[in-house]
Write a structure and sequence with these properties.
This protein has helices spanning 11-22, 41-45, 58-65, 82-95, 117-130, 147-156, 173-185, 205-216, 227-236, 241-255, 265-270, 277-284; strands spanning 3-5, 30-34, 49-52, 70-73, 100-105, 134-139, 158-161, 194-197, 221-224. It has 285 residues and is of the alpha/beta class. It folds into 2 domains: 3-139, 3-Layer(aba) Sandwich (Rossmann fold), CATH 3.40.50.720; 141-171 and 200-261 and 276-285, UDP-galactose 4-epimerase, domain 1 (Alpha-Beta Complex), CATH 3.90.25. The chain is globular. It binds NADP nicotinamide-adenine-dinucleotide phosphate (NAP). Residues 7-187 form the NAD(P)-binding domain.
């Protein structure tokens, strides 16, 4: 069964390819794609086919997907362009007769107020309308995104936000990549499924501060700000207006519990507990 992975030049996609190889999936049945293929030249050395595929270039997508039984569409990074880009990938997959498309979406994309969800929701709708056999992996928050809290804690003994006592059920990128590899290796049982994938444990920023304190061997405090105070701090740190609004909205989403669900589907898929946030941060130290 031949598998094509988009976004393999990025962090999640590469980990998916690595995970497929670790599981014994034949390298000759894997095609790794992205725009900047120089970053995955080492995968070619290991027998993986490497092809350039740009979501803005439908012909490159058709070429990359031709002959694939399964395609993993890793959501892109260009906010505001992604619905069209993902639509190009879905159309290309349909056009060349891909058997099964797996898409990395966002938690409860169909009903959440999460600031990032609308493009994922629209992509899921395109997928449903495409008639393609598909699986949606609604990936939760990455542990790695707490690296900034780690760095602030290390430098100042404190980090700040406006998420209140909201909880985040984050997981390591590697956990989510492994789940994708499990599905790609045997997609049929997952046809039509929407998997909500999140960490086993949902933590508050106060709990993260306590864990960071233990990790760093110093006192670490979480300073909870009002959204207005948070805006002022972020703008003072030099962030542009759109980014400030994005970060503050995201913290409101966390406060509202939009990233807190712990259905346990991810650990079930990968057959082990998910990686606690502090373990991922220990690895980043
Ligand atoms: N769950 C979360 O916490 C979370 C957090 C951040 C992002 N995400 C989403 O999850 C995705 C994967 O995360 P990641 O950490 O692996 O991100 P990443 O390291 O930034 O990788 C993004 C990948 O998307 C590819 N890409 C972007 N625009 C493209 C285009 N026009 N055509 C083809 N490929 C394109 C990039 O390819 P090139 O570099 O070769 O162009 C890269 O391989 C992200 O793209 C984003 O949609 C999720």
């Amino acid at each position: 069964m031949s598998v094509v992975v988009t976004g393999a030049t990025g962090q999640l996609g590469r980990l998916v390819v690595e995970s497929l190889l670790e599981r014994g999936y034949p390298a000759e049945d894997i095609t790794a794609t992205g725009r900047d293929t120089a970053r995955i030249a080492d995968l070619a050395d290991r027998g993986v086919t490497v092809r350039r595929a740009d979501f803005e270039d439908p012909e490159s997508l058709r070429e990359a997907f031709r002959g694939a039984d399964t395609v993993l569409l890793v959501s892109g990074t260009e906010l505001g362009r992604r619905v069209e880009q993902h639509g190009n990938a879905i159309q290309a997959a349909r056009g060349v007769g891909v058997g099964h498309l797996v898409y990395t979406s966002a938690p409860r994309a169909d009903e959440t107020t999460l600031v990032l969800a609308p493009e994922h929701r629209a992509t899921e709708e395109l997928l449903a309308a495409s008639g393609l056999t598909h699986t949606v992996l609604r990936n939760g928050w990455y542990n790695e995104l707490s690296q900034q809290a780690l760095e602030q804690a290390r430098a100042h003994g404190a980090f700040a936000g406006s998420a209140g006592r909201g909880r985040t059920a984050s997981a390591a990128r590697r956990d989510l990549a492994e789940a994708a590899a499990v599905v790609l290796a045997d997609p049929a049982p997952h046809a039509g499924a929407v998997h909500e994938l999140s960490g086993d444990t949902a933590w508050t920023n106060e709990e993260l501060a306590r864990d960071l304190g233990e990790l760093l061997g110093r006192e670490v405090r979480y300073r909870d700000l009002s959204p207005e105070e948070h805006r002022t701090v972020l703008a003072g740190a030099g962030l542009d207006e759109d980014t400030v609004e994005f970060v503050v909205t995201l913290d409101r989403n966390v406060r509202d519990g939009e990233l807190a669900a712990t259905p346990g589907t991810l650990s079930k898929l990968i057959g082990r507990p998910t990686t606690p946030v502090v373990e991922t941060l220990r690895g980043l130290l």
